[in-house]
Amino acid sequence: MASKLSSSELVLNPDGSIYHCNIKPEELADTIILVGDQNRVSNVSKYFDAIETRSQKREIIVNTGILNQKRLTVISTGMGTDNIDIVLNELDALANIDLKKKEIKPIRKQLTFVRLGTSGAIQKDIPVDTIVASTYGLGFDGLMSFYANTESFYENPIAKEFIIQTKWNPKRALPYLAEGSEELLHLMTENSKVISGITATAIGFYGPQGRILRLNLDNESMNEQLTKFTYNNNRITNFEMETSAIYGLSHLMGHKALSLNTIVTNRYSGTFSKDPYSAIDSMIQFALEKLTKF
Ligand code: R1P
Ligand code: URA
Fold first, then answer.
1. Per residue in 51-108, pLDDT tens?
2. 3-state secondary structure at position 253
3. What residue numbers bound the domain in which 124 lies?
4. CB-ligand 2 contact for 93 (6 Å cutoff)
């Protein structure tokens, strides 16, 4: 017999919904759009033909509905891989744990996660308003080091070569590499203007992405080292704050994941999009069109 999870590990609200995401299993679709910004949830769900359920707790807003007969959930994660740990574990629990019996279900359900985020390009040839699909998430966040069975992330030759080429400072978390779904990458990049590359997932927006306001940096050449990094035709295209954890956790849990980001800033040229909301809206419409045919 499966062992019961205790109330301190699988935390539920009094109505039986999962603690932070605040929804019950029947409120979750199998295809889930993850966005950082809570205002982006309605910017996605406004395109649904019907919204079945809505929920909010803290920065996590969830809308589930139907578009072209496809059931979709859109959920805000807030910023950073720490929030991704919460959201992905809870969404996986909704699908794969019997919340009433508090037991792992014998048959695993596979979910599909698509992040629709914003990001900064670190290559000269990727202008603002481009959509970038992440082949891999290169994590500087350290989240995956707390889980078992992550050897393939840390032993990946690209991650190892990255550490060598950039002389990565050992006082930082060890970079790891997690792969997105090839099937979803193909779906999004086939016959489209979407470009692909490795997404560096930073643990912050300023110092961890090489931004200098009033504080000096430990390594002012970091972004230049990232831009120059190349290994077997792989290069780092962009910086954001969630993809490595989405890919890493999805891999361990057996889900499919892809990260799409609208480039709102180009760090190489020092430019910012003149109309980021239109560019993000184009990405949303593009992704919904693709997902409803998936
Ligand atoms: C920083 O401005 C935030 O924007 C990016 C980063 O990953 C970080 O979360 O993504 P979202 O626009 O999806 O939040
Ligand atoms: N989000 C990030 O994390 N970095 C950027 O430069 C832009 C958006």
1. 999 999 999 999 999 999 999 999 999 999 999 999 999 999 999 999 999 999 999 9
2. helix
3. 25-292
4. no
